[in-house]
Design brief:
- By secondary structure, this protein is mostly helical.
- The chain has one domain: MetI-like fold (Orthogonal Bundle), CATH 1.10.3720.10.
- It has 16 helices and no strands.
- The longest helix is centred in the first third of the chain and has 36 residues.
- The N and C termini lie far apart (about 65 Å).
- The model has no long low-confidence stretch (mean pLDDT about 85).
């Protein structure tokens, strides 16, 4: 018994520390060169199809380049003349106002708010409920914008004086003995906002659902035991813990919404000033009036608006970059 006690009390010998061998500098440089060699094709594609056109558009925005007239044969450097003309153009100011309304209504309130609500509703639900709800929402996200635009056109077709046969919504209104409407013509801004919310909510929902999975369950349980209601847990625990995901979502959907073109153009044909986004205004100036330099300057202003809004989000949410 004494021998066993002595063997237990006897200190164990310390194991020797194994040193990690660092590869020689020449070998590390060789690995870096090989890595760059494999990434070279991707860098080349990005340089040709992204950086190249971006630099060219930046240059063209300071010229009077056009598809017809003097600007087509001999483009001249005009400096900031295009930008000064844009800021004095009432149609640009209208398109800017419409784009901000569309952004706030469909992206910041609609997609972000509804996406967070759906992500919260899907928490702690059974797998069947999550699968069905997720499939319904994501199906609207994966279809092309052109198809989504024609779907909404078909859904809202018809009206009191329309030559088109009534769409599903007007058919339901008629069955309920309610008045039919030419929805796109009478409520254009509301229609494009709802269509974009339907189209893009899935991205926000998936992002928030992933962020909510990372919140420790113990925190929420402890807050519930302390008497915190659902609103208090949301405001004091959930939102502060997922503010990084909120900033990412707001940034990405803002940039996507500012560059939105196809869905709104298919719905309205770009003929309604009440729904003329900056992208549609840019398209008309560049490809209907053939002012390529002027259209490129509008594109730079759209990028600048997106960058300013992104910085505002980061500043308000106090997210570290």
């Amino acid at each position: 018994m004494q021998e066993k006690t002595q063997s237990v009390l006897q200190p164990k010998k310390a194991e020797p520390i194994q040193l990690v061998k660092v590869a020689p500098l020449s070998q590390r440089r060789k690995r870096v060169r090989i890595s760059l060699l494999f990434m070279a094709p991707a860098f080349l594609v990005i340089a040709i199809f992204m950086l190249g056109p971006a630099v060219w558009a930046f240059y063209v925005s300071f010229t009077n380049m056009a598809l017809t007239g003097a600007g087509a044969s001999t483009p001249q450097w005009v400096g900031f003349q295009n930008f000064i003309q844009i800021l004095r153009d009432g149609e640009f100011l209208n398109a800017f106002r419409v784009s901000l309304t569309y952004l706030v209504g469909s992206a910041l309130i609609g997609q972000a708010g509804l996406g967070l609500l759906l992500a919260l509703l899907m928490q702690k639900r059974n797998r069947i409920f999550k699968s069905v709800l997720g499939a319904i929402i994501i199906s609207a996200w994966v279809i092309p914008d052109v198809v989504a635009g024609f779907l909404w056109n078909s859904f809202l077709a018809g009206g009191p004086q329309s030559v088109l046969s009534p769409g599903l919504l007007n058919s339901v209104m008629s069955a309920l003995t309610l008045p039919q409407h030419a929805w796109i013509q009478e409520y254009p801004m509301t229609v494009i906002i709802i269509a974009n919310i339907w189209r893009g909510t899935a991205f926000s929902m998936l992002l928030y659902a992933s962020a909510l999975e990372g919140i420790p369950e113990e925190l929420l349980e402890a807050a519930a035991i302390d008497g915190a209601n659902l609103w208090a847990r949301l405001r004091k625990i959930i939102l502060p813990l997922i503010k990084g995901s909120i900033a990412t979502d707001l940034l990405l959907i803002t940039l996507a919404t500012l560059s939105d073109f196809t869905l709104v153009f298919v719905l309205t044909a770009g003929s309604n000033l009440n729904t003329e986004l900056l992208t549609i205004y840019q398209y008309r100036q560049a490809f209907q009036f053939y002012q390529i330099g002027y259209g490129s300057a509008i594109a730079l202003l759209i990028i600048a608006v997106g960058a300013i809004l992104s910085l505002i989000y980061i500043r308000i949410l106090r997210v570290e970059i």
